[in-house]
Design goal:
1 helix; elongated
Length: about 280
């Protein structure tokens, strides 16, 4: 069998593996949900038990669906799986290990979602622009929060990062304008560039000793932030890390550390540097 014949055979097998149940398309080879019809009038949907994954774009732009429930068999949500849909509530399987890039991006009606207990990675922009998402609890299993994962979640007020988190990528929480507190554990070696920039109501940030680097513009334009203590473990502070923090009164830094003081650019003249 030559290349073209093998290719034709593979296409045939893939097509024959697709089945429809109540209008929803599945791949019976891999037990994956492939496509949910945009014109469905259902407001609630329970994904069948035995489904292992939600394919990329499966629920993209669905308008009538308000709530979706996943069985414990689901372990993966693909890229853009629910992006730009009108869902309000999503109950995820606790066995999910990965939420793909832009999986729930621009789900502007989403108010309630559980982050799975055993998840290890949240992909880039997975929940960006979920403007009505108010509260999330991140499990201890989580090791990576991708680029812009929760960016512009304008109603999010509080975030406690898990103690074993390793990667806090660039722009992770940028534009979360209602966020008031953030606790960053020692396991995070670098707070990514712009990670909390434009969080206008951010009042307190706890940087736990163990962090090695604070990225460029990491807390830029956090205009409600009044004081910051830099842990002794921090070896590098990026350019403009606290630029535009107009309410900043005190910055405490270790006396045995020498940082590039350009990171104070745009802080008000009243900001005091206190060595400890």
């Amino acid at each position: 069998m030559d290349y073209e014949e093998r290719k034709a055979q593979m296409i045939k097998e893939a097509y024959e593996s697709l089945i429809k149940i109540n209008g929803v398309t599945y791949d019976k080879r891999f037990n994956e949900l492939v496509y949910y019809p945009k014109d469905s009038e259902r407001e609630s949907f329970i994904i069948p038990d035995g489904t292992v994954a939600i394919r990329d774009n499966a629920f993209y732009g669905v308008e009538n669906l308000k709530s979706v429930y996943m069985p414990v068999s689901v372990v993966r949500i693909g890229e853009c799986a629910f992006s730009k849909s009108k869902i309000v509530e999503a109950m995820l399987s606790d066995n999910i290990e990965y939420i793909g890039k832009k999986a729930f991006e621009n789900c502007k009606e989403l108010t309630k979602i559980n982050i799975p207990l055993y998840i290890e990675e949240i992909g880039d922009n997975a929940f960006s622009w979920c403007e009505n998402l108010q509260d999330i609890t991140l499990p201890s299993s989580l090791s990576t929060i991708g680029i812009g994962a929760f960016s512009f979640c304008g109603s999010l007020t509080r975030i406690i990062l898990p103690e074993d988190l390793i990667e806090l990528e660039n722009n992770a929480f940028t534009g979360c304008k209602s966020l008031k507190t953030a606790v960053i554990p020692s396991s995070v070696k670098k707070v990514g560039d712009y990670a909390f920039s434009n969080c206008y109501e951010l009042e307190t940030v706890d940087l736990i000793d163990g962090i090695k680097e604070i990225g460029s513009f990491a807390f830029a334009d956090c205009t409600s932030l009044t004081d910051v203590k830099i842990p002794k473990s921090v070896e590098k502070i990026g350019y403009g890390a606290f630029a535009g923090c107009t309410a900043l009164k005190y910055v405490k830094i270790p006396k045995d550390r020498e940082y590039d003081m350009k990171w104070t650019i745009d802080c008000p003249d009243k900001t005091r540097i206190i060595f400890y």
